[in-house]
Amino acid sequence: MKDIKRILVPIDFSENSEKIVQNAILMAKKMEASLTLLFVAQSFFETNSDFFVPHVPIAELEQDIFESSKKKMAMFVEETMDKSISHDTVVLLGDVAQEILNYVKEKKIDMIVMGTHGYKGLDKLLFGSVAEKIVKMSSCPVLTVNPYRVSAP
User: Fold this and answer.
1) With a threshold of 0.85, does the pTM exceed it?
2) What is the architecture of the domain spanning 6-145?
3) C-alpha to C-alpha distances, 116 to 59, 75, 99, 133, nearest whole angstrom
4) Separation between Cα atoms, residue 2 and residue 8, nearest integer Å
5) CA distance 139 to 48
6) How far apart are CA 55 and CA 61, in angstroms?
7) Which of 12, 18, 64, 71 has its CA 20 to 30 A from that of 78?
């Protein structure tokens, strides 16, 4: 098995994200790896669902969501990250699973650490299971963490 030096941690800012990041930090310390925290704001234009999106200035709405996501990421990192770990953050806009897979390939990520739970209810029906898609299609190993079964270290 090749050395794991670049770990990607997709997050969704849910209450479970902190637990997943804390577990990824433990792995990064043991492997002497760097972490990248990634949030993908779902694009209304990129979704694979057939639900109706009314004609409004969607591009402006998406830009607002993207900008607020960058601010939320900064706050999340300030509250959650261990400063002794080499890390960076990325916020993207698009189809969540596809953007994660593209990023992994483009940046030659060695491993993904992600939660098994994110979307619930109607969102899951509309957007599907991101974790399931990543596990099936990733070009690198994926460690899934069930946040309901693991407590933050």
Assistant:
1) no
2) 3-Layer(aba) Sandwich (3.40)
3) 30, 23, 17, 11
4) 16
5) 22
6) 12
7) 64
Quote the CA–CA distance of 122 and 51 in Å, as a whole number.
11
Query: Tens digits of per-residue pLDDT, 34-84?
Result: 999 999 998 876 544 455 555 557 778 888 899 999 999 999 999 999 989
Q: Which two tokens stand for residue 70?
A: 């960058």
Distance CA 105, CA 29 (A): 23
- Three-class secondary structure of residue 61 per DSSP: helix
Is pLDDT of 119 > 60? Answer: no
Are 46 and 98 within 8 A, CB to CB?
yes
CA atoms within 13 A on the CB side of 67: 6
Average pLDDT over residues 12-27: 91
Q: What are phi and psi of 6, to 5 degrees?
A: -130, 110
Q: How many CB atoms lie within 10 A of CB 151?
A: 9
22-42 confidence digits (pLDDT tens): 999 999 999 999 999 999 998
C-alpha distances out from residue 22 to 19, 57, 112, Å:
5, 38, 14
Question: Which residue's structure tokens are 């992600």?
Answer: 114
- For residue 41, how many other CB atoms are within 10 A of its CB? 21
